[in-house]
Design brief:
The chain is an all-alpha fold and 90 residues long. It has one domain. It contains three helices and no strands. The mean pLDDT is 92.
Length: 90
């Protein structure tokens, strides 16, 4: 298994876990200032982009069908991490 395939998925789920943990501990009310959780979430989501680009450049030409499946999984994981933030309007 190639790290560039699973690292973005792991980062997305870690970002989602941070959001869910924050909701469990603090609640869904808007905070007056972005906390550490928000900055970690932003870093995790931003760091995925170059890894996904690397994966696409490296594996898409060689194995297009399999690479598209992995890219779809990566996109789905990113959407799962983004969804609570946009649903709650943070």
């Amino acid at each position: 298994m190639k790290p560039s395939a699973f690292v973005p998925v792991a980062l997305s789920f870690l970002a989602l876990a941070i959001v869910l943990l924050h909701i469990a501990l603090v609640g869904t009310a808007r905070q007056p200032d972005e906390g550490m959780e928000a900055h970690i979430w932003q870093f995790l989501m931003a760091f995925q982009i170059p890894v996904i680009i690397f994966f696409a450049i490296r594996w898409l030409p060689q194995f297009p069908k399999q690479a598209m499946i992995v890219l779809a999984i990566q996109a789905g994981a990113a959407v799962a991490a983004l969804a609570p933030v946009f649903i709650l309007g943070w």
